[in-house]
Amino acid sequence: MRTPDLPHDVFLDIFDAAPVRDLTPGEVIISAGEPATQVFNIVSGVLRVTRTGTDGRRQVLSFLFRDNFVGLTATDNYFFNVEAVTAARVACCPRRQLDLRLGQDPVAERAFLNMMFRVIEDILDVVYSLGQRTAIERLAVFLLYLRHWRRLTDNLANDADPALMEIQVPMSREDIADFLGLKKETVSRSFRDLEDRGLIQRLDTHRIRVESLDGLRQLAGSWDFSSPRRLTGSFTKP
C-alpha cells in the first residue's frame, strides 16, 4: 500500500532556531574522519560532497542545493568531505538533537524516511547515468539534473516555465568531470558537441540556454530516471 505523501521538510524545523554559518567558495564544513556530531541544512548556495582515495584521486559524489540536508552517517565519523562551491549559508544542528526529534515524533520520523527513500532513488539515478553512457549523454543527464534542482529550489510548479530554459552551472569543469567520471577536456568538448547539435547555447562559463529540451531529454534518456517522475509523472518514451 502506498503511504500518503507527507511534507518532506517536517523534521527540518530543528533548524528554525539553529545558528547559521556563512561560507566562502572552497570552505570546508565536513572533513572525512572527523566525529559526525553535526548535521547541516543548506540555506543558500551550492556545496559539493567528495571523497579522495589513497592515491589522491577525487570523486565528487553529489552537489547540494538549497534545502538539501547533509551530515548523517551510520558510524561515529564522517567518511566524506563537504565544501562550498559558491558563497553559501548553512544552518548547523547537533546530531543528537535530530535523533531526539525523530524519536519523539512519528510524523517527523516518517517524513525523514521518505526523504531518505528519495535520496536512494537519486543515488541510483546517478549510478545509472554513469553506466553504459557516452560522455555527451552523461553531460546531458547532468544538465537536466541541474534543471531539476533549479525547479525545486525556485519552486517552479510548471515544467514549461520559461525560466527553466536557462540553466545555472555554478561548478567548475573539473567538478563536473569528477562527478561524471570524465576528464575535464572531455567535459569541455561535450559542451561544444551539445551546442553544435543545437541542443544548448553557452551564454557564459556558468550559464547555458536550452535550445531543445526534448532533444536533450532524448539524448539523456530521461524516461529511465526516477527523479523527474516525482514532479511530472512518468515520461513517455519518444
Verbal overview:
- The two termini are 31 Å apart.
- The longest helix is centred in the middle third of the chain and has 24 residues, at 106-129.
- Helix 3 crosses helix 5 (184-196), helix 3 packs across helix 6 and helix 4 crosses helix 5 (184-196).
- This protein folds into two domains: 10-114, Jelly Rolls; 130-232, Arc Repressor Mutant, subunit A (Orthogonal Bundle).
- The strands form three sheets. A four-stranded antiparallel β-sheet has the order 1-8-3-6. Strands 2-7-4-5 form a four-stranded antiparallel β-sheet.
- It has seven helices and eleven strands.
- The protein is α+β, with helices and mostly antiparallel strands and 238 residues long.
Throw out a few tags for this protein.
Arc Repressor Mutant, subunit A; single chain; Jelly Rolls; 2 domains; alpha+beta; four-stranded antiparallel sheet
Shape: globular
CATH superfamily of the largest domain: Jelly Rolls
Radius of gyration: 18 Å
- Tell me the number of helical segments per DSSP (H or I, 4 or more residues long): 7
In CATH, what is the class of the largest domain?
Answer: Mainly Beta
Q: How many strands? A: 11
Summarize the structure.
This protein has 238 residues and is an alpha+beta fold. It has two domains: 10-114, Jelly Rolls (Sandwich), CATH 2.60.120.10; 130-232, Orthogonal Bundle (Arc Repressor Mutant, subunit A), CATH 1.10.10.10.
Task: Give the topology, please.
Elements: E1 20-23, E2 28-30, E3 38-44, E4 47-52, E5 58-64, E6 69-70, E7 81-84, E8 88-94, H1 95-104, H2 106-129, H3 135-153, E9 166-168, H4 173-180, H5 184-196, E10 200-204, E11 207-210, H6 213-220, H7 229-232
Antiparallel strand pairs: 1-8, 2-7, 3-6, 3-8, 4-5, 4-7, 9-11, 10-11
Helix pairs in contact: 1-2, 3-5, 3-6, 4-5
